[in-house]
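Job type: complex structure
Entries:
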Amino acid sequence: MPTTPPPLVLASASPARLALLRASGFDPRVLVSGVDEDAIEAALGPDAAPSDVALELARAKAQAVAALPDTDGALVVGCDSILEFEGQALGKPDDAEDAVARWYAMRGKSGRLVTGHWLVDRSAAGAGGEAAEVGAVATTVVHFGEPSDEEILAYVATGEPLRVAGAFTIDGLGGAFVDRLEGDHSNVIGLSKPLLRKLMAELGVNYTAYWDPAG
Ligand SMILES: Nc1nc2c(ncn2[C@@H]2O[C@H](COP(=O)(O)OP(=O)(O)OP(=O)(O)O)[C@@H](O)[C@H]2O)c(=O)[nH]1
């Protein structure tokens, strides 16, 4: 019989990450970190690798939430997703104009969606242990389709691209404009399930112990 795992805390405001965890058998509490992502990115400098930025932001979010008294005894997970495209680190678009310009540049090409993952184990057994990665499992190559100008304008007008890293989704409206992926799809949505399992194992936490046997 699996031991009772530490309660899971998602240090993210992302509705997609929460929905993904719930669909995967978890019922996390959500505590949003409120960290100043722009300040962290500025401190890393313009030449920082997108994977380094994503990991540093994931760390900042997870550790900020793990510092709250409310997370005593819990396992905290923080994430950050960035699209690496033609040498640029692209988060959410600044505005509709930026989203349109990005799609004009992205269509017919490919990019790498990297998601930094950072876990902090505040349980008694975990003693503040941490596990983090933005490696191979947390990098997915995205091959974009070729939406027409009109389709791009229609997509941006929905507002969806403004709310997501890289100005696209694979499971939402934007999926029509993503031809294929190479790598983990959940990583693109914002949290890689196989990587979460791996990082939990590094902390001695059993991923399946969160599942309700009654289903
Ligand atoms: N549903 C969906 N969401 C996506 C996809 N790609 C990126 N996102 C979302 O884009 C957002 C990336 O921004 P982040 O800064 O990592 O996270 P956030 O939403 O700002 O929330 P915090 O973790 O609180 O910063 C996340 O909410 C991701 O879930 C996708 O293909 N599908």
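Summary: The longest strand covers residues 110-121. The first helix runs from residue 15 to 23.
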